[in-house]
Amino acid sequence: MEISALYACFLECQGVTTDSRNCPAGSLFIALKGASFDGNRFAAQALAQGCRYAVVDNPEYAGTDSRILLVDDCLKTLQQLANYHRRKLGTRIIGITGTNGKTTTKELVSAVLKQKYNLLYTQGNLNNHIGVPLTLLRLTSEHELAVVEMGANHPGEIKALVHIAEPDYGIITNVGKAHLEGFGSFEGVIRTKGELYDYLRGKDDSVVFLHHENPYLNGIAQGLACIRYGQTPGLFVSGQLTGCSPFLAFDWTAAGETHSVQTHLIGSYNLDNALAAAAIGTYFGVSAAQVCQALADYVPQNNRSQLVDTGRNRLIVDAYNANPTSMMAALQNFRQLEAPHKVVILGDMKELGPGSVEEHRKVVGFLDECGFERVLLVGGEFAAATSRYEHFADVDAAIAALEAHRPEGCFILVKGSNSMKLSRIPEHL
Questions:
Q1: What's the CA gap between 63 and 218, in Å, rounded?
Q2: CB of 342 within 8 A of CB of 334?
Q3: CB neighbours (10 Å) of residue 110?
Q4: 104 marked as part of a ligand binding site
Q5: Would strands 145-149 and 207-211 be described as parallel, antiparallel, or unpaired?
Q6: 90-297 belongs to which CATH class?
Q7: What is the CATH number of domain 3-72?
Q8: 99 is known to lie in a ligand binding site
Q9: In the list 75, 258, 299, 374, which could disulfide-bond 253, CB 3.0-4.6 Å?
Q10: Which residues contact 187 (CB under 8 A, 6 or more apart)?
Q11: Beta strands in 14-166 (DSSP E)
Q12: How far is it, in rounded angstroms, from Cα 346 to Cα 372?
């Protein structure tokens, strides 16, 4: 089926779904395949539940129903349809990627831009080869701007995503040691994130928002129109930390005027994310007062540097993701916070490849310097790295230990990769 013909069917629909358990009336169902499922099998069910059309790539399931549309490859069709739709609307798009902070930066940028614009932005972390197309297919003619987050764990993935989204503006929050198993090396991380810059370099009138103090990003930004932000005076937006006990407070300056913000963000490492949002908002004409209000009102969700008061303890819950860069940043920030009793609960950092144990040893070395009152480590990588601290094979064993010896009146950092399931710990504290 030609993409133009499919697009005509898409325009008759009320959105797109790839989940036969969630079929809003009048939507377009696209049958994707996974390791343990084949969406083709559910096409008829999706139609019965209210979808207007169903797209399949297996003739066996096409049948005689004219509402079932046969294509060569449903995933490629989803991506082509999203790109076709993006081109038809011509909405200005800001692409965001980076090792750490991209989701928080996306949320902050979106909070700021919503003050002035009808904005579409990535929901949650739908930032991969499926999530990006689904985000683009939510665009309507009413949207004035879009913020699209792009994630990757292998070379070439950002390149593929930017050719679907075709952003006009871009920001790489930072580059760090994450997904090294897929990227092969830190240099591989830089090259892959830099695929966003590579795309924008070849596009007329593109603009990059550049963290001025990041040497890796400066090193790959040649030939780009850059709007710079950071802590160096005199940039388009510059800022300085004014407090972090535990919530981030900072001053930021643009066009010679300085403004103060008290946020609900935990961690001095969020200063750069907030400055990025201030820079992008200022560039797009959002007033300084609106920028400040949006940043002050934003409250993080989904286990991303959340402050939780359980009644018995105060927790910083950062259990959505972890890599050497974000782990060290979280520990450095926690070390600086003033509290009489500090406890650290860390889970393994995943997808680090052959150097994983060494990276975990570096974290342990820093823990040795910090002198926290109690340290609990969860997972096999930390077990291979040290025997000096309490260690547990999995989160259930850690929970049992915490229930046997309950912390009281402590400030507790909980951080690890999502697959370690440390997000289950707070309810037991």
A1: 55
A2: yes
A3: 24
A4: yes
A5: unpaired
A6: alpha beta
A7: 3.40.1390.10
A8: yes
A9: 258
A10: none
A11: 16-17, 28-30, 53-56, 68-70, 92-97, 119-121, 145-149
A12: 12
CA dihedral 31, 32, 38, 40 (to 10 degrees): 20
pLDDT of residue 335: 95
Q: Which residues pair with 228 in a beta bridge?
A: 210
101 among annotated binding-site residues: yes
Return d(Cα 328, Cα 322) in angstroms, integer.
10
**Predicted confidence (pLDDT) per residue in 298-349, tens digit:** 998 766 788 999 999 999 999 888 999 999 999 999 999 999 999 999 999 9
Q: Is residue 100 a known part of a binding site?
A: yes
Per-residue pLDDT reduced to its tens digit, 102-161: 999 999 999 999 999 999 999 988 999 999 999 999 999 999 999 999 998 888 999 999
Q: How many CA atoms lie within 13 A of 400 on its CB side?
A: 8
Looking up tokens 């996974």 gives: 34
What is the DSSP-derived secondary structure letter of residue 173? Answer: -
Do 230 and 238 form a contact (C-beta atoms < 8 A)? Answer: yes
Q: What is the pLDDT of residue 178?
A: 72
Pair 329, 267: CB distance under 8 Å = yes
- Annotated domain spans of the chain: 3-72, 90-297, 306-428
Q: Which one of 3.90.190.20, 3.40.190.10, 1.10.620.20, 3.30.870.10 gives the CATH number of domain 306-428?
A: 3.90.190.20
Please state the rounded mean pLDDT for residues 240-263: 96
Query: Was 310 annotated as part of a binding site?
Result: no
**∠ at Cα 165 (164, 171), nearest 5°?**
130
A 10 A CB-CB count for 11 gives 10
